[in-house]
Amino acid sequence: MSLRTLIRRLVSFSNKISLALTEKNMDFPEMFEDYEKYHTNVSTGKALRFELIKDWVEPNSTILDIGVGDGLMSEMFKKNKNATVSGLDISNIACKKAMERGIPVIVKDINQGLNFKPDEYYDYILLIEVIEHTIYPQKVLLEALSHSRKGVIVTIPNSAYIKWRIQLMRGFSPRQSFTHLHYWSINDFKLFCRKLDIEILDSKFSVPPW
Prior knowledge:
Elements: H1 3-22, H2 35-41, H3 46-53, E1 62-66, H4 72-81, E2 84-89, H5 92-100, E3 105-107, E4 122-128, H6 137-145, E5 148-155, H7 162-169, H8 186-195
Parallel strand pairs: 1-2, 1-4, 2-3, 4-5
Helix pairs in contact: 1-7, 3-4
């Protein structure tokens, strides 16, 4: 890392702490009645997360993108990894956006089960900012693992992120999306996987731009 990059990151981190200590607008973010409104109003930052996970996916792979959203990440895997990608999402609006990018999708509420066919397997299954929205994340994760040949790639918000720690210190619950049902720190998620006898092959973290 260059000195310039280090200084830029330190300044950015300092600004985030300053904002967290002084912010006055503590309204609840992303308070929607359903996921149709969610996908009408929210950008899920899939381009940033693609850069984080792309090296874990081998070229010419088959991928199932659960919680495909607008299909941007799936499209990036098609273009950059020559992957064969399909998707699932609970939202009709999200699936329509993904189909406009050329991604074959199915509208499905995964809280009712993934319901794979016995011979349905993918090289990789993606759960990108998804399992924190599900009722029983352990069921979703284990079912995905049983139908992936090379692995399941999961990203989650880090509930121990410094901004949210400061909000808690100020007497507010951390202002994550109102659509989240579960919360993990990095250490929490490692314990969660250990409890399920899931081996974590690799992990990364990034500091969000907000």
